[in-house]
Automatic annotation (TrEMBL):
Example GO BP: protein N-linked glycosylation
Native source organism of the sequence: Basidiobolus meristosporus CBS 931.73
Transmembrane recorded as keyword: yes
GO molecular function, one term: alpha-(1->6)-fucosyltransferase activity
Protein name, per record: Uncharacterized protein
Gene3D superfamilies hit by this protein: 3.40.50.11350
TM annotation in the entry: 51-72
Domain of life of the organism encoding this protein: Eukaryota
Entry keyword set: Membrane, Transmembrane, Transmembrane helix
Amino acid sequence: MYQFWFDSPKLTLGYWRRKAADVMKTNKWSLLRFEEGNEPPVNSYRPSRRYLRFLCSLMFFLCCMLVLFFLVRLQIPQETWIRPLYNSSDVQVLRESYPPHNYTLETPSITFMLTKCTAGFGSYINDAFSAFLFALDNNVAFHIQSREWCHVSWSTFFYDYSQDTHAPIVLDTYSPGAERWHEASGTPKDIQEPGFNGHVFVVHSGENFDDFYHQIATIKQPVYARKKVVAQALWEPKPVIMDVVNSIRKHYVEDSNRILISMHIHRKDKLRREIKKVETSVFVEKLQELSSTKYPNREIALFVLGDDDDALLELRSLLAHHHNIEVFGLSDAFTHLPRSTTSWSPLEQHQGYKPADFQVTSEKHQFQQTAELITDITLAATAEEFICCYSSNIARLVSLLRTQSQDTIHSLDWEAWTNE
């Protein structure tokens, strides 16, 4: 039976091609008119030159279209092929209403100048978001400018306004020698009351910083809700960050149907100087409470971020008998990620962080530390629950980036933080 199927001349594609060609010669309007007995011998058919030319033309056309596709793909900014991390209606309205990015040096603006690594990433960014709100209320452009911006350059890890992206908001760094840098390098200009015109330069922790904070008090209410929108509009990490975040979520959550809970434990430089220590056991108690009340009989992936590996080890020890909870940090997660998704690796050790030490480390170390911190923050913001201390700038930054309800944030020191 199978032999007949393949050997029968009337059941082959070549047979029907020959029939069609024969019909076209005799009657081009009757393509379905076939007559028995006039078919050529089985092995005598050869494709016509016209048919070969058609095939060659078709292949050439398809190749041209393929080349054109890749050329266009290279010309289109990569970000337009990536779904924005935050795309709520409020965020979209802010992005669409922000002043156009084709500004000149005459465009009124507020420039936030970071001159020294005297504060951490979270502190700088939270202050920058407040400055941005102030600029929005005065309908002017906003810039960040720095000789050595703490944690490398914004545009290394984030899309910014200078690119044709879905987040057309500026958070640049201007290098020494740039025209705007020369204009800003003199004495910081006072913030005029009421409102201002022209350029205003605010030096972080500088001589007019207190005046700036006095003006921040005039930001329109509600500050916290509007600051969340600003934070989410600006926080648009590049694939160097998002590829890692998505791969971690896929491994720990999506492929295993576990609940992701994030926990930020701040130690070292903050303790005794700015905040009171909250014992690791208190974090564990809150986690156990969530596990038993909100997620009974569910497995939990606990993501821990912080500046001290000792806290992670202590946490693992306290949770050793809780078999439904897997504790992991960024270094643990990297061991499970495909190499194709990672172009960098986290630091091997974390024993505290001092902002002043950052600028004297190697370029590679600076990149790793910054990429790790941004990945920590972005991943923590996606978790179903977030356990933290609001006294930490990083915790407050994560809270601004979360789209979940406020009752999923559990601060163990301050009861609330609304920035108002």
